[in-house]
Every structure is written in structure tokens, then in C-alpha cells.
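Sequence, please.
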């Protein structure tokens, strides 16, 4: 197994070394449309481009300044050069999602303001697009034009000769990595060069990468999994990676596996929803042209990992050479640069079954898989290279023992410095203490450790108390999506609202496109209410069926439950059918179950 550890003080040292020792070696290949190569970069070419961009930056802003880095999804190589250009200049990169609409432009302005960016890097094409969006949002003009925008694809490469190395160290701030915003307003995590190098060493060891590895990444490059896993990790491991736009995956999901097959990728992956999407959409004709036998590490993270998804994907693509053992469930977040835990590459995923009702009472009680309340939970490995994972009671802040569900706390060299310009949030989240041990990062996630394996069960902010019992939204969402064929898997949100001083359950669920042609709103809603009553002994206050593709999600595919809750209360969801509790009706939970049971007994 590889044991490569960090031997560089900064990411600049890392790229400079690659450029000097293997400068002509291919580093990055980009597929703008997911199929056709639109560009390549060697280590030497990337170094020259980064030096040219850095020289321009150094002439305009001082070291430590924040620089917004926003590029189209189709300009992956330009984004990489701009990101490293910031590092080469000793400034702090602030990566962002390219705005595609007037609403997206507001988020860009918010990112500019919260980071206090002094300059922005982009392409000529996106700059023209932004100016067009400003015509629809003229009130934002001043905010965007307060800083200069530089189109890096218009810069002269000759400036590379003017570059001088920045005065930076391991603890120098490298970039602000904003949280996904799945549970609230995105916050900028302060990530140092040392954080990134430590996390890169962990991933290199866990995935057992070598110079013979080959990556294939479709994830957005401006966020943790795409940036650290898709851009930095291949550089750290000195192996080539093929990148593609996430838009290409959305347009045609099978492009991902076709690229894995074509480039003989050994490492690739993404959130659970992507695997789920592929096994559901795959046709025999798709599978016939795939060869997935090279795939050694199929990492899955960023959202709850479902055992059923692992099984179905492995079964569907086994004829193509995919091995279930290649699955690598892992856990991480922006606050830890990326990676927190994972298992051994050679081991198959660990899946254990627990009493679902006991889990909601914060107890991990193992049961047989045929137990009526059995809930399969996928293990997410352990900490590596000295990082520590602990489970704590989120209320008493005391450590919990094996098998007890509590908040996951983490400490290690990959944990960021805190949130930019948010001292109170930083102290609350990054300052956890367990006796004389600390500081710990309080992740806000719930889980437990069993036999050294970390299991994730949910998120504190999203836990609901219904009828005096705890409920994880993910569990209810899984029940809902499976109860009626018109409901889209992975496209629902369960959340609570307060009604007359009591928490009440609301379900927002997308429907399949075919449902819109011949809707059966009453049947779908009845199935949802019945399934939740049977499985969770909970009453539903309201159900809204949503138009296909309209459920609020982050750019990495996480369901934004708090955003969905807010839009439900505002009445701004794209609803195609709805039901809400009416006290004058007799259709309460007990009556619903009784009537359904009577109907089934007469069949």
C-alpha cells in the first residue's frame, strides 16, 4: 500500500516540482460536452499559465487579498489555471458556481460581498453573459462593477516571465471553500495550504493511488469534491485525470460511464444520486458498449449512501466488469477540506442493519436484515493519518460510547481555520472540547461508531420530533419515493413546520415527467400518507407534488430541505398537486390506516 506523505510546504511547491521534473507529462484532459476532448494541459503548461495569471494579479492586488474565481462549467482547464494563478500570487481564491440566471447572479454578488473579494477572474464569454444578466437585475450593477473583472483567456502568456515566488508557508490561507448551503446560508471555510496537502495525503493513501492511477471526474470543480478530489489529488499523485462538465452528466448520465470505459479510469465517483440515476436509466444497449473492469475506486459521498443503490448499481453493471468491491463509501465536508473517513480499498463496503425505531431514539441496535424495522446503514470507514473522530452528546457536550448515536466531532490537520468573518460561528463550530481534548470540529451530523467503523445517521438541524419521537428526514424520504411509481427517487424532501405550537410533517416530492401527462394526484398523495403512517407512525400535515426537476438542491446534488421549507411557507414551489390537513375532515392517521387495511382485506 502506498505510504506517500506530504513532502511539500505549499501547493505552489507541489506544482513547481511537477513542472520541473515531469513538465511534459499530461496532467488534465477536459471533455466540455462530456464526449469530445476540448483541451489538454501538461504540468509545464499549467505552471506557465499560473505564473502569467499570478503576475497580473500581483500588479493589481496585495498578497492575502481575496479573488473571486468564477468560470463556466465548460471552461475547466481555464478554471484550474486561474485557481493556481491565485496560489502563485499569494492571494486567496474564492471559487464560485457560474451564474446561469438572474437569480444566480444574486448569489454571485452575495459571495463577492461576504468574501470581500477585490478582483474577479473569469472568461470573456462568461463576462459577456454576466453583463446580459445585469440587464435583468440592474440593481446589482454597482456591486459587480465595484471590482475589476479579468478575462484570463485574454491575458498574454508572456507575463509568466515576470512572476516571482510568493512569500507563503504551510499555514498560509490558500482559498475560501464555501459550504454547500444544504442546511443554511453558505459560509466560507478558511483552508490553508497545509490543510489541502494533509487531506491529499489521506486520499492518496486511502485510495492507494500511484503514478499509474487514472482519474475521471465530472463533479463541479469550484467545490470540495471536484476541486480537491478532481484537481489537487491527481496533481499530488502525479497521475492524469479526465474532467468533464457536470452539465454533460445531467444532459446524458451515461456519458460518465462511457468516459470511465474509454479512458480506463481507475478512480471515479460522486454522490449517491448519480449512481442511483445510472442504474435506473441504463439500457441493455448502453451496457453492451461499456468496459468498467479498470474501475478500482468508485467513491461515494457528499450525501447519505444507500445500501440499495450500491447493490442495484453493482448488479446492473456487473456484466460490464464492475465489481461491488470497488465501491468506496466515505464521509467528508467543506470544513475538513474534503475527506474525514473511509475504509480500506481492498475491503467491500460494510453494510449493517439496525432497528430503525431505536436509531430514532439515538440507539444503534443491530437486528437481522429481515427484522420488520430493519434499516440498512452503510459504514463510512475511519479516520486516517492521525485524525480523530469522536461521538458526543450535542446537548451535554460529553463523549458517548460505542453504539450510541450523537454528534460527530473531528480533529486533525485537514480541519480548516474557521469561517471567514464569522467569529461566533467559528467558535461554536470549530471550538468543541471533550475534557482536555480539542479543539474539535462539530460537524452537525449524527452518527455512531461500531467496531471502529463510522456510521452516519442524519443531521441535527434536520431531525424532526413528531408525536414525541425523533425522525430522520432521509428515512421518511426513502419511504415516500418507494410508495408510488410516479414519484422520482432522490427528489423528495421531508421537513417540519410549526402549526399552533406543534411540529407538523410536510412532504415535498417531485413526480416523474410521465405523471404530468396523466396525473393521479389523489392516488399518489394517499400512497404517501399511508406509507408514512405504516412505516413511521407519523401523521402528514401537507403533501406537495412538484414539477420534475424543481426540488431545491445544491450544485452537488444535496437536497436543500431548509430552502424547500422556506419556499413551501412562501408558496413559491413549483407545485402540480397538493393536499393539506383539514381539521373538519375525518382523514386522520388512524382513520386512514383503518380504511386502507379494510380495503386490502377485501381484495
Amino acid at each position: 500500500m502506498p505510504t506517500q506523505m506530504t513532502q511539500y510546504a505549499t501547493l505552489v511547491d507541489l506544482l513547481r516540482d511537477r513542472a520541473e521534473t515531469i513538465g511534459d507529462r499530461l496532467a488534465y484532459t477536459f471533455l466540455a460536452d462530456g464526449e469530445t476532448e476540448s483541451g489538454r494541459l501538461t504540468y509545464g503548461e499549467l505552471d506557465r499559465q499560473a505564473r502569467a495569471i499570478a503576475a497580473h494579479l500581483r500588479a493589481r492586488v496585495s498578497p492575502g487579498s481575496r479573488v473571486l474565481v468564477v468560470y463556466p462549467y465548460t471552461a475547466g482547464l481555464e478554471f484550474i489555471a486561474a485557481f493556481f494563478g491565485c496560489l502563485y500570487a499569494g492571494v486567496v481564491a474564492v471559487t464560485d458556481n457560474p451564474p446561469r440566471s438572474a437569480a444566480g447572479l444574486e448569489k454571485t454578488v452575495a459571495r463577492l460581498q461576504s468574501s470581500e473579494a477585490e478582483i474577479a477572474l473569469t472568461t470573456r464569454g462568461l463576462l459577456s453573459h454576466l453583463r446580459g444578466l445585469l440587464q435583468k437585475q440592474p440593481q446589482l450593477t454597482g456591486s459587480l462593477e465595484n471590482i475589476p473583472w479579468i478575462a484570463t483567456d485574454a491575458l498574454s502568456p508572456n507575463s509568466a516571465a515576470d512572476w516571482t515566488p510568493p512569500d507563503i508557508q504551510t499555514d498560509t490561507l490558500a482559498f475560501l471553500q464555501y459550504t454547500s448551503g444544504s442546511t443554511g446560508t453558505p459560509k466560507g471555510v478558511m483552508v490553508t495550504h497545509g490543510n489541502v496537502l494533509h487531506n491529499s495525503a489521506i486520499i492518496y493513501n486511502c485510495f492507494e493511488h500511484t503514478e499509474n492511477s487514472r482519474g475521471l471526474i465530472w463533479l463541479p470543480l469550484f467545490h470540495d469534491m471536484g476541486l480537491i478530489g478532481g484537481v489537487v489529488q491527481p496533481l499530488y499523485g502525479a497521475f492524469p485525470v479526465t474532467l468533464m462538465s457536470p452539465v454533460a452528466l445531467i444532459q446524458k448520465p451515461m456519458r460518465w460511464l462511457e468516459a470511465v470505459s474509454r479512458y480506463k479510469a481507475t478512480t471515479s465517483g460522486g454522490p449517491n444520486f448519480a449512481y442511483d440515476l445510472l442504474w435506473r436509466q441504463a439500457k441493455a444497449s448502453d451496457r453492451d458498449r461499456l468496459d468498467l473492469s479498470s474501475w478500482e475506486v468508485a467513491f461515494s459521498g457528499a450525501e447519505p449512501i444507500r445500501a440499495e443503490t450500491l447493490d442495484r448499481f453493482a448488479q446492473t453493471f456487473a456484466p460490464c466488469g464492475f465489481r461491488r468491491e470497488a465501491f468506496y463509501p466515505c464521509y467528508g465536508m467543506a470544513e475538513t477540506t474534503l475527506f474525514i473517513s473511509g475504509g480500506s480499498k481492498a475491503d467491500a463496503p460494510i453494510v449493517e442493519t439496525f432497528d430503525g425505531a431505536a436509531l430514532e431514539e439515538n440507539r444503534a441496535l443491530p437486528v437481522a436484515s429481515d427484522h420488520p424495522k430493519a434499516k440498512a446503514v452503510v459504514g463510512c470507514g475511519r479516520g486516517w493519518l492521525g485524525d480523530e473522530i469522536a461521538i458526543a452528546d450535542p446537548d451535554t457536550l460529553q463523549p458517548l460510547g460505542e453504539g450510541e448515536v450523537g454528534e460527530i466531532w473531528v480533529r486533525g490537520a485537514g480541519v480548516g481555520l474557521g469561517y471567514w468573518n464569522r467569529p461566533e460561528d467559528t467558535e461554536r463550530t470549530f471550538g468543541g472540547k471533550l475534557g482536555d481534548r480539542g479543539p474539535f470540529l462539530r460537524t452537525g451530523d449524527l452518527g455512531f461508531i461500531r467496531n471502529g467503523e463510522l456510521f452516519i445517521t442524519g443531521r441535527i438541524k434536520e431531525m424532526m420530533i413528531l408525536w414525541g419521537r425523533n425522525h430522520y428526514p432521509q428515512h421518511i424520504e426513502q419511504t415516500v419515493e418507494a410508495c408510488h411509481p410516479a414519484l422520482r427517487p432522490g427528489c423528495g424532501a421531508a421537513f417540519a413546520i410549526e402549526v399552533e405550537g406543534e411540529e407538523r410533517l410536510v412532504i415535498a416530492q417531485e413526480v416523474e415527467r410521465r405523471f404530468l401527462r396523466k396525473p393521479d394526484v389523489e392516488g399518489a398523495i394517499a400512497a404517501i400518507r399511508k406509507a408514512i403512517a405504516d412505516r413511521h407512525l407519523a401523521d402528514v400535515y401537507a403533501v406537495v407534488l412538484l414539477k420534475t426537476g424543481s426540488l431545491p438542491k445544491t450544485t452537488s446534488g444535496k437536497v436543500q430541505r431548509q430552502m424547500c421549507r422556506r419556499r413551501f411557507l412562501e408558496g413559491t414551489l413549483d407545485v402540480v398537486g397538493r393536499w393539506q390537513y383539514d381539521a373538519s375532515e375525518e382523514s386522520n392517521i388512524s382513520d386512514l390506516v383503518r380504511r386502507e387495511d379494510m380495503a386490502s382485506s377485501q381484495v
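The chain has a mean pLDDT of 90.
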